[in-house]
Amino acid sequence: MTTTAQPAVLPAAAAGSGRLLALRRALRSGPVLFATLFLGLIILTAMAANHLGLADPMAINPVERLKGFSAAHWFGTDSYGRDLLSRVIHGARVSLLIGAGTVFAAVLPGLLLGVIAGYFRYADMVIMRVMDGIMSVPGILLAIALVAVTGANMLTVLIAIAVPEFPRVVRLVRGLVLGLRGEPYVEAAVSLGTPTPRLMLRHLLPNTVAPLIVQGTFIFASAILAEAIMSFLGVGMPPEIPSWGNVIAEGRMYFRMKPELILVPGFFLALTVLSVNLLGDALRDALDPKMARRV
After folding, report:
1. Domains of the chain (ranges, CATH numbers)
2. 3-state class of 83 per DSSP?
3. What are the distances in angstroms from CA 17 to CA 5, 11, 282, 295?
4. First vs last C-alpha separation in the chain
5. 77 φ, ψ to 5°?
6. Cβ(165)–Cβ(175) under 8 Å?
7. Long-range interactions of 14-17: CB distance < 8 A, separation 24+
């Protein structure tokens, strides 16, 4: 009896240990380790921005406008005399909130509709044609149009960025569910009369978690970039709210005179997006069973 039970247990244990080893190996690599540490530092700094003793990012001081690097202003000041370091750190909070909120706004409904489209054939045609219609419009243009209609604030910008990402999640989950429907354990559950909601919750949804985690990291990075682009074009966050896109947009008129107004927030923006993408690649390698078996 013990010999017949072992083959069913060992593959799962081996797969789990393989994924753990792959994740450890990825985190030991220099770029991924740096990306993890940098993201952790950015998140902690953004969360503690109000307790770091920084200058008010909204305080206007014409006397201090366009000052260079100094002990009082590490990165200098902008055209309104506002501390650039404080605006970059508070802008990180806004950009990270937009990124995280977009992930939840795109993944949660996308997961639900993707499972329905992949499991119910009669709903597949309707849902996927709607998704194809949304994806036929360039994402940034659709986001700009939505903000132009509803007005610019954090919630509308978040929703506008999440809408173009939403169909991609639906297509991903639908493809996974279509592949899982033919698995023996799913067919066995159906033949035993398992209720459909329970079948989805216990057999289908858990198998979509790993790919969705990886997809979520790329949505996070894409949302940060989209917010910066929209704010730079003047259709994103309101100008009074510091975000990396707004800081870059306000500094473009003084680029020749004071390039750090663009280079500093642009550096943090690029490094954050790069770090998220590196971490997403590491998670993909660790959570992919094929990659885990190579360890």
Report:
1. 45-60+73-293 (1.10.3720.10)
2. strand
3. 19, 10, 16, 9
4. 31
5. -130, 160
6. no
7. 15/289, 15/292, 15/293
State pLDDT tens for residues 181-219.
777 777 777 777 777 777 777 778 877 888 888 888 889
Q: What is the pTM of this model?
A: 0.80
Buried b (16+ CB within 10 A) or exposed e, 172-211: bbbebbeebeeeeebeebeeeeeeeeebbeebbbeebebb
- Concatenate the DSSP letters of all residues of 109-134 into one string: HHHHHHHHHHH-HHHHHHHHHHHHHH
User: How many C-beta atoms lie closer than 10 Å to residue 136's C-beta?
Assistant: 9
Kindly report the backbone phi and psi dihedral angles of residue 69, in degrees, each rounded to the nearest multiple of 5, phi listed first. -65, 135
User: What is the rounded average pLDDT for all residues in the chain?
Assistant: 79
Integer Cα distance of 94 and 89 in angstroms: 9
Give the pLDDT confidence of 24-82 residue by residue, as tens digits: 665 566 777 888 888 899 889 888 888 877 777 777 777 777 777 777 677 778 877 78
What confidence score (pLDDT) does residue 15 get? 45
Q: Where are the alpha helices (DSSP H) in 49-83?
A: none
Residues 79-110 as b/e (b if ≥16 CB within 10 A, e otherwise) read bebbbbbbbbbbbbbbbbbbbbbbbebbbeeb
Helix then strand count (H, E) for the chain reads 12, 0
- Interval 69-122: pLDDT, tens: 777 677 778 877 788 888 888 888 888 999 999 999 999 989 889 888 888 888
